[in-house]
Amino acid sequence: MATRNVVKKEDPILRKQSRVVTKFDERLWELLDDMVETMYADEGVGLAAVQVASLKRAVVIDLQDGEGVTELINPVITKEEGIQYEIEGCLSIPGEYYETIRPERITVEYDDRYGEHHVEEVDGFRAVCYCHEIDHTNGILFLDRLNPEPHDREELEERARIRRAEKNNERG
After folding, report:
1. Every domain of the chain and the residues it spans
2. What is the pTM of this model?
3. Which listed residue (30, 99, 133, 158) is catalytic?
4. Architecture of domain 12-171
């Protein structure tokens, strides 16, 4: 495994549509492993392959909630319900955090690293992260999902602090 350079928002590759993965082989596994290592090195909770300059429809997520790493290959959101507001950031846009609008719950279909198909329903912060990373595979940045009428930033930041503290307490 190795860390890779994360491309920044000025790089036009971030606006490109990623390609469907058809080969579930050692090259894909190496990419996924490198993405996880890069995500951890940069202290992120998710990373899409396009962020390390690979136009494969691949995403890795680890919310540090005890569930471990989730790898989504060829992910597609098939259902959205409700709305939620969240402060988001991005490893490709360091230091910038803004309020976004996302679905509260989603259903996503994807393949794992071995090509096995899965259907998963997620909600809350996990849904935000899935949407954020899947957007990357479609050339969409979180800056495209900003809330035009942001809530009180202090309130949202306090909610984010509470969520982080709860996660830290869960880890022990």
Report:
1. 12-171
2. 0.87
3. 133
4. Alpha-Beta Complex (3.90)
